[in-house]
Amino acid sequence: ATPMSIMTATGRGAQAGVLIRNAEALERFEKVDTLIVDKTGTLTEGKPKLVGVYPEPGHDEVEVLRLAASLERGSEHPLAEAIVRGAEERGVDLAKADAFEAVTGKGVKGTVDGRVVALGNVKLLTDLGLDAAELRDKADARRDNGETVMFVVVENDVAGLFSVADPVKATTPAALKELHALGFRIIMATGDNERTARAVASSLGIDEIRADVMPEDKAKIIKELQAKGHKVAMAGDGVNDAPALAQADVGIAMGTGADVAIESAGFTLVKGNLDGIVRARKLARATMRNIR
Ligand code: ADP
Ligand code: MG
């Protein structure tokens, strides 16, 4: 590769909001055929908002929200912020939580006012020996609307569910359409529930969905595709996405995301939207054409 053309591409990329780490990343990107995108914070705004609180019979709406939000103050997950902000907006006073524990890919646990509280997904319920059979219809209705559902457990009793909405970024639909036209197969990988993922993906022309994915599994999915001869780029924003970004032929971090994601990536999209990937692909093609 002639250094000048790479330098030109790097400069143009920077002007267009794509930081390119090195020539190798640009060269590899030209050969990529499969693009994996994280859902939360990559396709969506990543600022979920609490839109529903559904206590089970015998449980109080304000009380389940108070217990859940008191616990979530200890978590930095975007879903935790949604719960805490939702409680604050509703004027709920929070308590101090003890024995706080984050369960990766599942939720949080701890003690509030001497009561054992847990909040998270079906995997967390399963770990606790519980199920959400009675809440399934309510949960599925919210998921079909693209919302994320979390179950709250108080003293080993499922006390209710919360639903959280995270709108798709305004720039996402057009960017995905163009990426398709450029020839990428697009796969959504998310820790979120399959139904929620399906509802979000349906309007976006996503080719394939991998849902209920544990953080360490994102890198595994990429390895499997690579073993079949695919060249894979991965776009993500979270701390959990860092291993996958490092495993990908080209990792693409959202500039609005976690520092560790940015450090693991070959490209950083400064504005945090997928338009930057379209630009990067065009730059990669133009640069490699010049070099050959
Ligand atoms: P992703 O960012 O791809 O959605 P995560 O691994 O961060 O994946 O989370 C997967 C799932 O685990 C979430 O959809 C949620 O159900 C649950 N979860 C994780 N952290 C929390 C939390 N702090 N509070 C409640 N649920 C959580
Ligand atoms: Mg994310």
Offer a quick outline of the entry:
Helices cover 42% and strands 24% of the residues. With 292 residues, it is an alpha/beta fold.
Describe the structure.
The strands form 2 sheets. The chain has a 7-stranded mixed β-sheet, sandwiched between helices. Strands 3-8-7-6-5-4 form a 6-stranded antiparallel β-sheet. The mean pLDDT is 93. Helix 1 (3-15) packs antiparallel against helix 13 (275-291), helix 4 crosses helix 5 and helix 7 (136-144) runs parallel beside helix 9. Helix content is 42%, strand content 24%. The N and C termini lie close together (8 Å). With 292 residues, the protein is of the alpha/beta class. It has 2 domains: 3-45 and 168-291, HAD superfamily/HAD-like (Rossmann fold, 3-Layer(aba) Sandwich); 49-165, Calcium-transporting ATPase, cytoplasmic domain N, CATH 3.40.1110.10.
